[in-house]
Q: What sequence folds into this?
């Protein structure tokens, strides 16, 4: 095996396995390596811990690869990480690579319906060409909850659909800890929502940016935040809730499907925050508290558009597709300018995208050419 003598599982079916603490199917420890290929994980659970399916512990440099696998209904009770939990500390950090997998209805009663990152060092999880749908959390963050110091989660060419929470904020996820980094490139999102009855309306955002760092590049976030079935377009798909300029937006479509509302929303906890972006096509930027948040418009930004500006917009196997006849006024981006902006914000994420051949490609892996359409799809 190329993974230092990995334990290999191929075409296996894991169903209704359980544990008390964590890792209903697999608990990884001691600097080991394991690989799952073309396997199914169905209805596995942790009854009083985290990770109904896969748990990679701290204290050693564990490596786990998961490819062409299906996860459905794996769950945990009490602790973060419904399906997967990876950890790191000063003695060693776990690494998880997922490629061409589907995750459906993964859930936890706590935070991080799909995955949680914990510990005080630098665990890493990557997701490439994955479909993530119907995941949910009893508290926050239906997909990812990153509370590990310096933990990282990378997504490329992933589709997120109808993930939801019953808690307070961040129905897709939140980089919660200082030093945490979340990178999304070529990703498409729709239908994320909050189901809690009587929730404060500003809490129904899709992404809540806490103390961590986050980059959106070449992504399509299209829809309306909802709480308890009520459309609330004024509070944004992305909520900034920190005091550090640690968020960057590059060549995205972040728009409301209603001809009103906003794309990015400044919360009420920061005192003075300035965020920059370039080549984004977004619904207006708003703030909850005057003077606390400023979005500095960069080259090619258009901050007054809605979904109607993208003719032929449809959701399908390629996420959000459209015909390229953009009706806004701002120019599209040079592909080299997009790649340069990604590298300037986070060199490690840029290096990973380059290593998997994703730079200059769209969600299908199609070459973008010299000029990039905003968002994840390019015809």
A:
């Amino acid at each position: 095996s190329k993974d230092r003598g990995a334990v290999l599982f191929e075409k296996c079916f894991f169903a209704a396995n359980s544990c008390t603490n964590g890792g209903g199917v697999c608990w990884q420890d001691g600097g080991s390596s394991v690989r799952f290929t073309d396997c199914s994980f169905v209805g596995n659970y942790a009854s009083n811990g985290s990770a109904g399916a896969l748990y990679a512990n701290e204290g050693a440099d564990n490596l786990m690869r998961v490819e062409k696998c299906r996860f459905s209904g794996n769950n945990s009770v009490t602790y973060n990480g419904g399906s997967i939990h990876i950890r790191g500390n000063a003695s060693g950090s776990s690494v998880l690579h997922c490629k061409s997998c589907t995750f459906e209805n993964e859930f936890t009663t706590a935070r991080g319906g799909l995955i949680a990152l914990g510990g005080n060092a630098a665990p890493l999880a990557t997701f490439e060409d994955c479909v993530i749908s119907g995941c949910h959390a009893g508290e926050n963050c239906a997909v990812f909850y990153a509370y590990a110091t310096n933990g990282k989660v990378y997504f490329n060419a992933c589709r997120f659909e109808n993930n939801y929470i019953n808690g307070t904020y961040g129905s897709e996820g939140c980089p919660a800890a200082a030093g945490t980094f979340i990178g999304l490139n070529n990703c498409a999102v729709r239908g994320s929502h909050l189901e809690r009855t009587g929730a404060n309306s500003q809490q129904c955002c899709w992404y809540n940016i806490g103390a961590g760092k986050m980059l959106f590049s070449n992504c399509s976030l299209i829809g309306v935040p909802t709480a308890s079935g009520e459309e609330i377009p004024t509070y944004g798909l992305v909520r900034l809730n920190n005091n550090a300029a640690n968020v960057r937006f590059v060549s995205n479509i972040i728009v409301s499907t209603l001809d009103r509302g906003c794309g990015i929303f400044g919360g009420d906890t920061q005192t003075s925050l300035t965020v920059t972006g370039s080549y984004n096509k977004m619904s207006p930027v708003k703030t909850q508290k005057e003077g606390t948040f400023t979005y500095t418009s960069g080259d090619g930004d258009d901050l007054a558009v809605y979904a109607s500006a993208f003719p032929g917009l449809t959701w399908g196997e390629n996420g959000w597709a459209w015909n390229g006849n953009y009706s806004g006024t701002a120019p599209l981006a040079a592909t080299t300018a997009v790649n340069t902006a990604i590298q300037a914000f986070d060199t490690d994420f840029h290096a990973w995208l380059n290593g998997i051949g994703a730079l200059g490609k769209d969600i299908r892996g199609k070459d973008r050419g010299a000029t990039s359409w905003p968002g994840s799809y390019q015809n």
User: Anything to note?
Assistant: The chain is about 5% helix and 40% strand.
